[in-house]
Design brief:
Helices cover 70% and strands 0% of the residues. The longest helix is centred in the first third of the chain and has 33 residues. By secondary structure, the protein is mainly α. It has 2 domains: 89 residues, no CATH class; 161 residues, no CATH class. The radius of gyration is 21 Å and the shape is globular. The N and C termini lie far apart (41 Å). The protein has 10 helices and no strands.
Length: 286
Amino acid sequence: MLLLMLMIIIILSVAGLCLGSFVNALVWRLHAQANFSGKKKPSRTQRAQLSIATGRSICPHCKHQLAARDLIPVLSWLSLKGKCRYCHEPISPQYPTVEIATALLFIVSYICWPASLTGAQISIFGLWLLILVGFMALVIYDLRWQLLPNRIIYPLAAVAAALACINVAVADRPAKALLGLIFAVAIGGGVFYVLFQVSEGKWIGGGDVRLGWLLGLVAGTPERSLLLIFLAALLGSLLSIPLLITKRLKRNSKVPFGPFLILAAVVVQLFGASILQWYQRTFIQF
């Protein structure tokens, strides 16, 4: 049993590193494609380079096509001492960081998965790993450019909807589970939609509203959806308040909220049931 777990962890580690590398390429290409919006059309060569499906990896500085030896997650960056092999320009530490973070999320998800990985749970876990890849892409994009692109959110919502459908189908009371899912989505997106409308987009962006609907699908129940929002607000406050006190952050500074929502979603998916049970035992006693 222990050997099997070790093998699964190794497989997940390799898969996480490779998919983390894919996240880096995806984010860079999506942003590069967006830069052509409203400008002259890209050339055939540029379209080929920026294609998500068929484009080959290139150096963002010199645009040299990278060889296979340049694309080994983490190890290539370390062996090149963080510089391009061809132009010697620095390569952002974002690349190995994202690769390692994705692998760690895969491993932690496996170790802390709240249900036995048998039957339908295997499919749910597989879909969750795909969602994590999308989450990583959204986090990086939001941190760098304060945007949550629809080209990531909409496909990710489809995966989240598939996960939600399986959860409803395998529930002891599917009708009740479906009703709970509807309320979870309404809460997840509804809260941010109200904030967006009231503030006219000053407090929260439209991308956060769409992310809220998506996270409602992932949360699955109204209790988990509310917990997700609470945790995201708590995490955001824990970061922002010290920065405001030390004046490293101004009152009118924009802080991307997407990463906090996504981190909260991961916590709720893996530990939400335990947190809610603890809350009920501690504060709701009859």
